[in-house]
Amino acid sequence: MSRVVKWGALVSGVASFVLVFGSASDVMYGVSHGGNLLAYWHIALAWVAASALGTTFVGSALYLRYRGAFWSRLAHSAGELGFLLVTLTLLFGSFWGKVIWNSYWEWTDVRLVTFLVVWFIYAGYLVVHAGTDGGSGDRYAAVYGVLGFITVPISYVSTRLWTPTFHETTLGNPDVSANIDPTTLLVSLLAASLLYLYLLGLRIQLHELEDDLAARQQRR
Predict the structure, then answer these.
(1) How far apart are CA 138 and CA 190, in angstroms?
(2) Mapped to the 3 state alphabet, what secondary structure does 76-139 carry?
(3) Which of 5, 18, 24, 207 could form a disulfide with 73 if both were Cys (CB 3.0 to 4.6 A apart)?
C-alpha cells in the first residue's frame, strides 16, 4: 500500500500543478492575480491538517484506552505532520490574503485568529511530547492530544458561530463569491491527502526504529 500511496501522491501532485497553472482561473473575489492560485493548496492543506490533527485525537484516545505503543506513535506522528500542515496553511493563506485583502494578517478575522490558536495548541503538544519520557509521559501527551483537539472544530465552524470579517462560509453557502474550480480543488486535496498518508507511514516507521534503538541501548 505504501507504494500505491507514494505513486498516487506523485501522480496527483503533478496533476494538481498542471490543473492549477494550466486551467484554473486566477480571478477570485473580483481580483485577477497569479497569487490567487495559492488558494487551491491553501484550502487543501487546511482540510488535510484537520484530518491529521483528528488522527492525533483518535490515536491519543486509543492510547489512553489500550496503552498500545502503536497508538502513541500514530498520535505523535500525525501531530507533527498536522503542525507542519497548519503552518503551511497559515503561510499560504497569508500570501493569498495579501492579494485579496491587501494584508498578510487581520486580527479581526475570526478564522485567522482561531486557526492561530490551533497552531499554538499543537506547538504545545509537540513540546509536551518532547519534554516527557515514555510511559507516564505518553499519557500526558495523549491527554493533551484529546483535549487540544476541541480547538480544531471550533476553528473550522468559526465562520458560522461568529460573523467573519473576510473568510466566507464556503460549504453549503450558495452566495460564496470565491471562484474556485471544483475539479482542481479535489485533485489538489487528493494529492495533499496521499502525501500526508505516505509521510505518516514513514514517520511511524522512524518512531519504531527509534524505540527499537532505545530498547537495545537499555539492554546494554
Answers:
(1) 32
(2) HHHHHHHHHHHHHHHHHHHHHHHHHCCCCCCCCCHHHHHHHHHHHHHHHHHHHHHCCCCCHHHH
(3) 207
Three-state SS at 31: strand
Cα 187 to its chain centre, rounded Å, is 17
DSSP string of 173-186? Answer: -TT------HHHHH
C-alpha span between 123 and 131 (Å, rounded): 12
- For residue 116, the model assigns a pLDDT of 95
**Letter string b/e over residues 105-122, b meaning 16 or more CB atoms within 10 A of that residue's CB:** eeeebbbbbbbeebbebb
DSSP reduced 3-state for 27: strand
Rg (CA), the chain: 19
Contact 122, 86 (CB under 8 A): yes
pLDDT value at 133 more than 60: yes
The 10s digit of each residue's pLDDT in 72-112 is 999 999 999 999 999 999 999 999 888 888 888 888 888 88
Closest CA to 119 of 153, 86, 145: 86
Q: What pairing do the DSSP bridges indicate for beta strands 27-28 and 31-32?
A: antiparallel
pTM: 0.88
pLDDT (average), residues 143-161: 89
- Work out the pLDDT band at 53, boundaries 50, 70, 90: very high
